[in-house]
Amino acid sequence: MINAIVVIPSLPKDRRITNNDYQPTILLGDRIFPEIQISQSPVTNSLEIILTNITEKLDSLQKDFTDLKVDMAEVKTELKSIDRRLEKVEGTQNALIKDVSDLKGAKSLIIPVVVAVLTSILTLLVRSIPNP
Hints:
1 helix
């Protein structure tokens, strides 16, 4: 951190101050920098113009803020809609998982049914062969 001190020279009371007499000296730590001068440019804009500019900027910021609020409300609405659709998809997924598990149960029943049908056909064929 740099500590800076501005030293302003004092003049006797009987002497008029001119721009050349009023040169502040800036102290940084233990070094003196008299060549650094503070600019003293006059303010050319009136206070009314500056306040008008500030008011216009505040109005613009207020409009932008209102637009952001509206956009945020739209995003919230879309998010709620997406959330509802996601819940529907999750419900459909759960139903499909249940159906697939039911199909796996049916698949395990298909094999015994096929074996039973084949056994019955073989039994009919064997009985149809004449006995000597």
